[in-house]
Automatic annotation (TrEMBL):
Name of this chain's protein: Uncharacterized protein C14orf119-like
Taxonomic lineage of the native organism: Eukaryota, Metazoa, Chordata, Cephalochordata, Leptocardii
Underlying gene: LOC118416401
Taxonomic superkingdom: Eukaryota
Record-linked InterPro entries: DUF4508
Pfam families on file: DUF4508
Species assigned in the record: Branchiostoma floridae (Florida lancelet)
């Protein structure tokens, strides 16, 4: 399969997961997506440190989905990433608006 077909399938998976996530999972996904867009910030680094722990149990399905998303996202082009945002906007426009607000806020703080 070509890269484009695989990427579309990956986006379809992410959108399907997103549509079924509860609010706390969407909030975590928002933080992750913002971090990927602007790079690591002090706040995100501290949040990641707080979430580190040694666990004897298997990761949740959500954690596995987030890990897959991170791997896929790294291989996507900028156009692919923008397409994902468009697809997510069709599911939850408020979520995507919050994403853009968070990115803008962080970029303003940096300048």
């Amino acid at each position: 399969m070509s890269h484009g077909v695989v990427t579309v399938q990956e986006m379809h998976c992410v959108c399907s997961w997103f549509a079924n996530w509860a609010l706390p999972q969407r909030e975590e996904f928002l933080r992750d997506l913002v971090e990927k867009a602007v790079g690591v910030t002090t706040d995100s680094l501290l949040a990641n440190l707080d979430s580190l722990s040694v666990q004897d149990k298997a990761p949740s399905i959500f954690k596995c989905q987030m890990k897959l998303f991170g791997q896929w996202f790294e291989g996507w082009t900028e156009d692919d990433r923008n397409e994902l945002l468009q697809r997510l906007e069709n599911i939850d426009a408020i979520f995507v608006a919050r994403f853009y607000d968070e990115v803008a806020k962080i970029n303003q703080q940096r300048h």
